[in-house]
Amino acid sequence: MRRRAEEIRTTRETDIDLKLDLDGNGSYEIHTGVGFFDHMLAGFARHGLFDLEITVGGDLEVDDHHTVEDTGIVLGAALRKALGDKRGIRRYGSCILPMDETLVLCAIDLGGRPYFSFEGTFPAERLGDMGSEMVREFFYAVSYSCGMNLHMKILSGWNSHHMAEALFKAFAKALDQASCLDPRITDVLSTKGSLE
User: How far apart are CA 59 and CA 180, in angstroms?
Assistant: First the structure.
């Protein structure tokens, strides 16, 4: 059975329609109105082998904050829905990913308890048409909306574009690993018997 989810969220600030398939091949169709963010989400889909469709109408006349943060909330909700009862998943995933001079770390626990830790700073204030501080805001929103323990750290680097892109790709690889089904796990990977 394919693990898919669709989430629609409409507020006064954003209108988001998102479709996610955890068992895809990395295809994507992404239109958020923020070019750099589209590029990051495309990398997430491709390197995690998730099929992802996102259409966002946001109040970009204000800035990019609501568009990026709300997309994180919706993606987190879709992940939670697609994972279902989490029966058979590996639960944990991690990745240390290099991109040119940059090296980042991402570790995930899909155990159901939200927590977010982020270490690192971006030399540049903006990444194309997106504020660099929004990278952290996006992942915070994903982790709490999904109920995910997410740790991210920029270990080295000086190019802000590379840092952000490496984080999105490392997140994709770690999430693919954590959400992957393992035939040896016949229920949920917890002594409690539940991952809620």
Answer: 36
